[in-house]
Amino acid sequence: MPALLAAPGAAPRRAPVSSIALVDGNNFYVSCERVFRPALAGKPVIVLSNNDGCAISRSNEAKALGVRMGQPWFQCRALQARGLVALSANFALYGDLSDRMMSIAGSFAPRQEVYSIDECFLDFTGVPGDHRAIGRALRARLQQWLGLPSCVGLGPTKTLAKLANHVAKSAERKPGSYPAELASVCDLGQLAPDALDALLAATPVAEVWGVGRRIEAALQAQGIATALDLKRADPAALRARFSVVLEKTARELRGLRCLDLDDQPGPRQQILVSRSFGDPVTRLDDLQQALSRFASRAAEKLRLDGQLAGAMTVFLRTSPFRPQDAQHSASITLPLPGPTADTRKLADTAVRGIAQLFRPGHRYAKAGVMLLGLEAAGAQGAAQAELSLELPEDHAGHSRPTRDAGRLMASMDALNRRFGAGTLRVAAAGGGGHPLRAGEAAEAGRARWGMRRERLTPQYTTRWGDRVVVRG
């Protein structure tokens, strides 16, 4: 392979030179678990999806045992005899550590795009200094402050930064796959042109961001097998045969910036909350309790975004993987009386919707709600938008004044944030008179519709009762 780095001082950066970084947490879910259970370090560990269905995060040791991404738990359960540790997904913990990780990463660059729970792009364009050195400092800080391992990839474009992160991870995990000096932190912008081409030639086209299996097969049929082949492909032909997206990908591999950072993502167009049940649900009251809880969660997201919903779709279905069961799948979209973020109105709509869909004699496996017709709460805020022109009636048929729903919902959110999710909730959501513990493990223990999470670890950072106590 040609010399990797350009000769020092031979080709100084000309400002402003586009420089994008992708920061990615390694085996993120497993790494979060290891922060509070260091005894898991060096052991094969996997995190399972909802209902403990399949592996969604694997330690390197678990990968070495042969556990595949997405492999059903029942297929790898026998590996427990060889030391495999399986844990239920603890999204409360992962979300909190992700927020902290993004906060730290964002402090290193003027612009940030949070791409996923464990990835973010940083724009170092115009930032003086050695960007690879900054990447090393960032990686060290994440490790020291949070205990989370990560890799940093840098390049002139988002596509090259994503590819650089792949190189950094591969060089770290699989010595010999790429030059060792590119492990952990890789800056493709510092490579000499011939060295960059050699690296792209050693990278299968499937590793390029946005090239999925179907596109890979089509590219292979066109003789485009590596990232270098895609870089050298005719952009016009790529647009004609595939899409403008793939054309931009090829241009980005050439170092031409076609994709900007989306550091201020637009408002959501819809909000979906759904769950697969731990056990089949056959009773309407259980479904109504579940849907009320889902609507409450959707309402919280809605208020967090400062939006109101105009309609709600309610759906349910039986399991297509149980052909011996009678099958039923249905949905209904219900308009709301007016744009609202009121938990009570949304929960009531969900309860009414599921009652219309329910058919006795079926074993339902999944249900959910989707909020539609979202709009900004407006300058007056949700509180004023919630005011109704018609006074509701009490049980005796007498009109009574409408309370300030916006302030009530704000108080509800504040209480739930302070004392735990579900502390204050609508009665239809169930739970009797007992305060709910944060997270769904408690729900699973009380409700037939709850998820199966038999291997759930404590919520160390989001629930006082689960905090780690150190005794001297």
UniProtKB/TrEMBL annotation:
Q: Which Pfam families match?
A: DUF4113, IMS, IMS_C
Molecular functions (GO terms): damaged DNA binding; DNA-directed DNA polymerase activity
UniProt keywords, alphabetically: DNA damage, DNA repair, SOS mutagenesis, SOS response
The UmuC domain, residue ranges:
20-212
Q: Which domain of life is it from?
A: Bacteria
A single GO BP: error-prone translesion synthesis
Report the GO terms under cellular component. cytosol
Q: Which CDD domains match?
A: PolY_Pol_V_umuC
Similarity comment: Belongs to the DNA polymerase type-Y family.
Q: What is this protein called?
A: Y-family DNA polymerase
Instruction: Supply the source organism for this entry.
Output: Aquariibacter lacus
